[in-house]
Every structure is written in structure tokens, then in C-alpha cells.
Amino acid sequence: MEQDREQLASRLDIGKELLYLTQQDVISAGLTEADILRLTRDALIAHGRKAYDMPAKIGVFPSEEVFCHAMPAYVASSLALGLKWIGCNPDNPTKYGRPQTTGLMLLNDILSACPIAIMDCAWITATRTPAVTVLAAAALHPDAETFGMFGCGVQGTGHVNFAEHALKKLKTIHVFDVKEENMDRLIAEVQPKIKAKIVKGRSFEQVTKECQVLSSATLIVKRPHSFVKSEWVGKGQTILPCDLNTFWDPAIPRQADKYIVDSIEEHELFDRVGYFPGGLPRIACETGQVLAGLEPGRESPEQLIVCSNIGMSVVDVVVAREILNRALVRNIGSKLRL
After folding, report:
1. Where are the domains of the chain?
2. How far is CA 9 from the centre of its chain?
């Protein structure tokens, strides 16, 4: 830690200034998809081994479906200490022309606790979220040849872009969105980058029935919409929601052979504030425990597995710290006086 502080102090007057990074600055730091997957895996394994400090999301709810979360975390192995302050309003795209989620990352020096960086967190959230999904998919269903993605916005696009990095036998990706133009845009953007064929889905039911692995990145609201019905889901599938209890029939995680989550504490928190009206399903283990080899994932080809990953700040701070390291070396960003 002393050596790390010395390196930081050689480029930043700790306690008197911090580095501010815009979204473009964050992107310019140059993290590749392979970097994001590596950093995300490291953070998830640290979480699985309990080698972290992270309380459940601290939230305020200014209206029924709008929330802001403070997400602090410390991961010693990555020298990452900080907090994500993120807001979510499902009406942002239609009402204000902004993404559903927005926010900032704050990083601190470990030894002095002084703030050392503030950066936009939208790109970090948009990349670490699909990275978690595909890493979980690879651990739970490594031989999958078909992947289905519901929701073709920023997160859906990220998922399709990342999918074959982890699912090495992937042949076909089915996408579905209620807006056809979103599917067209996703296919035009991602198909030139990947080998797997992207197919435009015809309905929720058709995509569900034709894919071995399924994910969803849609709205996060308290009332389950149940777009995918329990009778469409079969044995041997792996389902990886990023939208809590909104998209899927709440009966599906209850009928699953295993319900795995990224954070038990955070799912319990969402349960307490009303996002699981029928109650939280019984949890088998956490995603990081599976990646760390501490808990079994899929134990039979016939198992139906649901793995819910709603986002943990251990991943955010690990990715953000690597961005800071590279930004300082490359002289990216603006130094602000405290």
C-alpha cells in the first residue's frame, strides 16, 4: 500500500487535488473487453472468497420507481477503494432523453482516505454488467451454442458484444426488443465484430424456447411484468436476469433447481423495499462463490438455473481503479483542487 501511495503521489498531490474524468476520458483510458472480463472476474472471485468490504446498497427513493444508490466497496487485492453514486429512473429514455441509469464514481487513497478521483460511471456500469453475465454463463453453461438477449439498449448491446468472449461454442444469438429499431441498431453495431450469428427474435416466447442461455436487461420496477411465462422455460436452461424481478414470471426462480445471486445482502435489501412482492426465492449461493470454485454451479445437464446479477460495487471500484491508473500514466483527465 505504501508503494501504491508513492506512485499515486508522484502524479497527484493527494489531499489537495483529485483527477476528474469525463465519460470520454474513461473510454480513452483504453480498457479492452478482455481487460474488463479479467478485472470483473478478479472482483467476483474476491467477493466469493469474502476478501472485500462492501455493505448492501444504501438507497433513497424520491418517487415510486426512482432510486439513487450509494455503493461503497474496498477490494484490497486490487488496491481499490471507492463509491459509486448511481441513479435509476426507468422513464429517463422517454421523458428526458437520458439513459435509465446515470452516476459518478469516487475513488479514495487507501492509506489517507483522501479522495483521488471522480469519474463518470455510465461506461463502467455498461461494461461490467454484461461481463458479470457472460462470466456467470461460462461457469454455469460453458457448452452453450445459443444465447438469447431481451432488451436491445445499451446493456443488451453490451451483452451481445461480450457473449462469445466467454461462451466459446456459441453459434447463434437471438435478440428481442419491443422496438424493432432497437434490434436493427444492435445487429448493425455488433454483428461485424463477432462470429456468432445474430438473429432478430419474433417474440418473447420464441426466443425463450430456442435458447439454452438467456439474459434480460430491461426496466427495473417493483411490479413484475412477467413477459416470459414459466411454462415456456424448460429443464437445462440458464437464465441470467440483470433487471431483478421485473422481466421474468416470478414463478421461474421458484421452479429453478438453483437460484444463484451476485449478492445475497443486496437481494435481501431489494426484497425489503418491495421489489419481490411474492418474497425472495430460496438462494443457493453467490455468483462469486461459483467462479471461485467454492460452490458448485451446474451439477446436471437437466438443471434449470437462474442466476440474478444486479450489480456490485466491488466490480465497479476494481474497474475504476484500473482506469485511474491508466489515466494518470497517459495524462488523461483534469486535475481539480480540493
Report:
1. 2-124+314-337, 127-311
2. 31
**58 pairs with which residues across the strands?**
70
pLDDT by residue (tens digit) across 291-324? 999 999 999 999 999 999 999 999 999 999 999 9
pLDDT of res. 222: 85
- Output the nine-digit C-alpha cell for 276: 419481490
Name the class of domain 2-124+314-337. alpha beta
- For residues 295 and 315, what is the distance between their CA atoms, to the nearest angstrom? 20
CA atoms within 13 A of residue 177's CA, in its CB half-sphere: 19
* Under 8 Å between Cβ of 325 and 12: no
β-bridge pairing 305-308 and 197-200: unpaired
Average pLDDT over residues 237-252: 95
Amino acid at 30: G
DSSP letter for 278, please. T
Neighbouring-strand partners of residue 60: 68
Determine how β-strand 258-261 pairs with β-strand 305-308. Answer: parallel
pTM here is: 0.94
What pLDDT was estimated at residue 162? Answer: 95
CA distance 126 to 124: 5
Burial class of 220 by CB neighbour count within 10 A (0 to 12, 13 to 18, 19+): buried
The correct CATH number of 127-311 out of 3.40.50.720, 3.10.20.80, 1.20.1260.10, 3.20.20.150 is 3.40.50.720
Instruction: Provide the 8-state DSSP code for 141.
Output: -
